[in-house]
Amino acid sequence: DGGITQSPKYLFRKEGQNVTLSCEQNLNHDAMYWYRQDPGQGLRLIYYSQIVNDFQKGDIAEGYSVSREKKESFPLTVTSAQKNPTAFYLCASNPAGPFNYGYTFGSGTRLTVV
Amino acid sequence: AQSVTQLDSQVPVFEEAPVELRCNYSSSVSVYLFWYVQYPNQGLQLLLKYLSGSTLVKSINGFEAEFNKSQTSFHLRKPSVHISDTAEYFCAVSTNAGGTSYGKLTFGQGTILTVHP
User: Which of the residues A22, A95, B23, B51 could staple to B91 if both were Cys, CB 3.0 to 4.6 A apart?
Assistant: First the structure.
């Protein structure tokens, strides 16, 4: 079945360490997105990519980095510069083009800084 | 730029009662509107969407939402809720404007629906 796979489901990190969250899709979607979810704040866009080898900053990109070397993969690195990284991270994809028919979401990664 | 406001952060309701989750949006251009549902520690699932045509859209599990352009609203309703409807619901908006705004969704803060027996 087609879908988005995020791994790991739970991740613990020590302060000062970088960590990479994986997102893989087999939907042949052009566009991919990373959102951060905090209680009571909805979802906030971190980075997005509409085509391979290109990506754009979202609303809260500081302290994060991404790459898009393959169409099916869009990993997110949470760097030590991110001041409050503990959150639930969601990856999504979209066929892109001129119409948005609704995202497909992964099941999320819960990152905890200890 | 667009924005979304979900007017209630929490909505408690008894089983088999009707429910309405309110959503208002702001945008200077035409919009697409979505409702997503999230169960604990899971990703979001698309519940229903308005792209064009009939302003009343329905999901397969009994929810419906009506696009009201004059009031810039997209409220979600269900005439009779079940325990299994307990979840967090997100309203989202996207524009069909060109350029880099293609496909970008802006989400509301979420409404936690709790259905009590």
Answer: B23
Q: Please state, in angstroms and rounded to a whole number, the distance separating the CA atoms of residues A107 and B6.
A: 23
What stretch of H or E contains B18?
A: none
Please give the Cα distance from B75 to B107 (Å, whole number): 14
**Of B22, B20, B6, the residue nearest B78 (C-alpha):** B20
Q: Which of B104, B109, B111, B112 to mutate to test the interface with A (most CBs of A within 10 A)?
A: B104
* Closest of A24, A25, A4, A31 to residue A101, by C-alpha: A31
Q: What distance in Å separates the CA atoms of residue B80 and residue B76, rounded to the nearest whole number?
A: 13
In angstroms, the CA B1 to CA B84 distance is 35
| Residue B57 region by backbone torsions, left for phi larger than 0, else alpha for psi between -120 and 50, else beta | beta
Kindly report, residue by residue over B40-83, the tens digit of the pLDDT.
888 999 999 998 888 999 998 899 999 999 999 999 999 999 99
CA A77 to CA A68: how far, in whole Å?
12
Q: What are the b/e assignments for A37-53, b being 16+ CB within 10 Å?
A: beeeebbbbbbbbbeee
User: Cβ separation of A99 and B96 shorter than 8 Å?
Assistant: yes
